[in-house]
What does this fold into?
Amino acid sequence: MALHYQFKEPHDLQLADTPELYDTLLNDAALGFLVDLHHHFEDRRQTLLRARHERQLRYDAGESPDFLPETRDIRTSHWRVAAIPDDLRDRRVEITGPVDRKMIINAMNSGANVYMADFEDSHAPIWLTTLQGHVNVIDAVGGDIELTTPEGKEYRLSENPAVLIVRPRGWHLAEKHLHIGGVPISAALFDFGLNFFHSVTLAPGKRPYYYLPKLEHHLEARLWSDVFAFAEKAFDLEKGTLKATVLIETLPAVFQMDEILYQMRDYITALNCGRWDYIFSYIKTFRKHPDKILPERGQVLMTVPFLGNYSRLLIQTCHKRGALAMGGMAAQIPIKDDPVANQSALDKVRADKEREVTDGHDGTWVAHPGLVPVAMEIFDRHMPSPNQLERTQDDLSIDQAALTQAPEGIITETGLRNNVEVAVEYLAAWLSGNACVPIHHLMEDAATAEISRSQLWQWINHDAQLGDGRVISEDLVRSVMTQVLHQIGKRPEVGAAAMQRYEEAAALLEESVFDAELVDFITLPAYQTYQ
It folds into this structure.
């Protein structure tokens, strides 16, 4: 294996101050590879981001996402994706989590088939945290990740750990700590490039696998396909060595699943129902549509029509093309000190996984190692074979209306308060460097915080009403925010420094919720607070 691309001219690259500890990670050859990725693909990324903005303006003017007439031939012709590698054919239970060293080891030892190491929604991208996360994941790729705590407790991988898949950040994010020619590198290319470079250098016998987030158009998938091809060529790898799973977690993408699979047909193994981001995307896409107001989050379940139809169409599309159809996240976590509440949480997980496997999904996600055996038992019982690719569901017909109709429901004061609490609690943790946070017995990440704050914006801007008839106004939301902050301040464990973070989080939430326009991602302004 030969590396064709070497470090470019130093004047092209401006790197933030970084401890010598990370010199091996950020060696000249690795940085040179990142520079090449940037030079080859940054202009296309910016063009695609501008296209996103232009489409959203059309949605704001009254249009709705729909199946593309210009790609009808792709949807109606016969073709299949490349063969799925043996170690990815059985993905019945996947666990996800941040790139913390201890969490990686525990997740890979949890009994799940796959662990998704997440640089995206459950990762707070502080510079040194990001770099250490890459070191941790690369050690896991090599199989020699271990940890000894100050108390002397040792952690290391078991004999049969989960298959590792890495989720880089999305196309919309930049990594501000590395500039090339005065321009920050794409965070997606930074995460992919560093992981790929070191994975194939240190563990050349292992095939790198990736989860790709937040795509909104099949040309964004094409960009990833071209990035993969470029990387393979740089390292003299056979075409199709890399493999990817794409999260269908935006409303526009659900109308282009065939096209996304086609654009990545040499590399793709599965699509995944990223349900929480999908709900957020529904709100954001229809932010100016008064007939698309969602009820409170607790009523927007996978059993409502637009979500159930999305899930079933994903299964049909994947199996028709020879790709796996992965289910979504069970956000519940075990509740140790309340047996009744714990049983209720487990019942919800079981019902969700029963629905997924009987619908035809080939696997599912959980957020906690304690839920791996729960999901595993259900999939083992209903799916004795490695997957359900043989269930093609040819008779299923789902149209645009079935994918966009808003569900019925109400908004209660409790639901309003819950949105404020989740957003403030999560943003305070994110600003402190923790992006995977248990709140009200659910494991929350950026996606659920996005739902909370975008719903508040939607309700205010469309004069939505509570069940008792009160209009959800700025004054009402401000009042609830004040109450929530007051209750947080009364907690004995919340000191002055912690309270300052909560106040910063509340200010960030206020700016987002009360602005005339809905900011695309709350993490974009929040990221600017990091050094």
The radius of gyration is 22 Å. The chain has 18 helices and 15 strands.
